[in-house]
Write a structure and sequence with these properties.
This protein is an alpha/beta fold. The protein folds into 2 domains: 2-122, Rossmann fold (3-Layer(aba) Sandwich), CATH 3.40.50.2300; 128-234, LytTr DNA-binding domain (OB fold (Dihydrolipoamide Acetyltransferase, E2P)), CATH 2.40.50.1020. The chain is built from 6 helices and 15 strands. The chain has helices at 10-24, 37-45, 64-74, 108-122, 169-177, 220-234, and strands spanning 2-6, 30-34, 52-56, 80-84, 100-103, 127-132, 135-140, 144-150, 153-158, 162-165, 183-187, 190-193, 197-200, 204-207, 212-214. It starts with a strand and ends with a helix.
């Protein structure tokens, strides 16, 4: 992640950078420090790519709220986390679609919560690369409905496409499991994406594209357990 930390007090911006680097390590995150709102605005004007901005509200030259309004002209989506010593000022942040507010000095536990939410928001969908008609094609793992064992090959079924590859079913499952934990083996020949399950019965499962797949009696209990866990986790 590329994070901007904007604060006119070096003690606060350096402290926040140290906390973030402690959590991620310098290999996984880059903190860019700015002493004023005008400095970070200039970065946006120059097209410098940032994933999120930690922005102090109270600064002498260009304050955080004013800087945020300019930033929004360049990006409507970038998460802005306001830093403030006066929580009553936080309400103004909703005008610029603030992502979070952190009180100064920043509490490490609150920062961790914010970083976890930030990761979820910034998470890029994982991809799976499959070979079709001699070409390697990239698919989003969320678009994969289910994997089906078919003789000596495997079918990867998507809403608007299907790819058949010569490989073992166990190899296909390993490929999927390396990317996502949202799949469940409901039958010896089927591995379904829980995000696309419309209805799960004792003998079959209805997918949201209309396909109805078999559920093995020995797998039914575990499949239901995994579906309930997925729903709880995903808030579906």
């Amino acid at each position: 992640m590329r994070l901007a930390i904007v604060d006119d007090e070096s003690v606060y911006r350096n402290h926040l950078a140290e906390l973030i680097n402690t959590v991620y390590g310098t290999e996984n995150v880059s903190c860019y420090l700015y002493a004023d709102g005008s400095e970070v605005v200039k970065s946006f004007e120059n097209g410098f790519g940032l994933d999120a901005v930690f922005l102090d509200i109270e600064m002498k030259d260009l304050d955080g709220m004013s800087a945020a309004k300019v930033i929004r002209k360049y990006s409507k989506d970038i998460p802005i986390i306001f830093l403030t010593s006066h929580t009553e000022m936080a309400m103004e942040g909703y005008e610029v679609d603030a992502f979070r507010f952190l009180s100064k000095p920043v509490n490490k536990e609150k920062l961790l919560e914010t970083l976890n939410e930030l990761e979820k928001k910034l998470k890029v969908e994982e991809k799976i690369i499959l070979k079709k008609d001699g070409e390697e094609i990239v698919y989003g793992i969320n678009d994969l409905l289910y994997v089906e064992a078919a003789n000596n090959s495997v079918r990867f079924v998507f809403k608007r496409d299907a790819v058949e590859m010569r490989m073992k079913f166990t190899q296909a499952l390993e490929m999927v499991d390396a990317i996502s934990r949202d799949f469940c083996k409901c039958h010896r020949s089927y591995y379904v994406n829980l995000a696309h399950v419309k209805k799960l019965g004792t003998g079959d499962v209805a997918m949201d594209n209309g396909d109805v797949l078999p559920v093995a009696r020995s797998s039914a209990t575990e499949a239901k357990k995994m579906l309930f866990e997925y729903v709880r986790r995903a808030g579906r």
